[in-house]
């Protein structure tokens, strides 16, 4: 079978465009996220009694959090001394991948921030970048803002979405 010379081959313009797709899902830590509420360790779920609290912390099985991510919080409407959260951090340190004060959203923001801090933006110098939008893993908006902050000084262009339907966001003057 001979090919008709008048028929042009199919060209993948996306592949030959030099676009780099950056998927922020790849920066998500795979460890489980756990909201660690200290409310049950309070006297009448309202008052932190130091001796009782320290005993609860001491007796707790911290090894169960190996490789996991903890968000320390208290859902009781009461004042908790700062040292209580510090004590939790000390006990979680040998086991948890990461821990933070706040809710699960705060923890997720921190996990992405740390992962993006390890990214060398110079890898993207002079490049045309698409920050992938939708996916299977929830990526906090803060991660999209942070990657924009990191890439703007070096990127030629920054877009959002998919190669077939991207939203242009930034183009270096003269690029």
How would you describe this structure in keywords?
175 residues; 2 domains; alpha/beta; three-stranded parallel beta sheet; 5 helices; four-stranded mixed beta sheet
User: How many beta-strand elements?
Assistant: 7
Number of helices: 5
| Rg measurement, Å | 24 Å
Distance between the termini: 45 Å
Mean of residue pLDDT? 91
Structural classification:
alpha/beta
As residue ranges, the low-confidence spans are: none
Largest sheet: 4 strands, mixed
Biggest sheet, spatial arrangement of strands = 1-5-6-7
Instruction: Report the principal-axis shape.
Output: elongated
Number of discrete domains: 2
* Proportion of residues in helical segments: 25-40%
Description:
The protein is of the alpha/beta class and 175 residues long. It has 2 domains: 13-28 and 118-171, no CATH class; 33-96, no CATH class. The chain has helices spanning 13-16, 50-59, 82-92, 104-117, 141-151, and strands at residues 19-22, 33-37, 69-73, 98-101, 128-131, 157-160, 167-171. A 4-stranded mixed beta sheet has the order 1-5-6-7. It has a 3-stranded parallel beta sheet with strand order 2-3-4, with helices on both faces. Strand 2, helix 2 and strand 3 (69-73) form a beta-alpha-beta unit. Helix 2 runs parallel beside helix 3. The longest helix has 14 residues, at 104-117. The two termini are 45 Å apart. The mean pLDDT is 91.
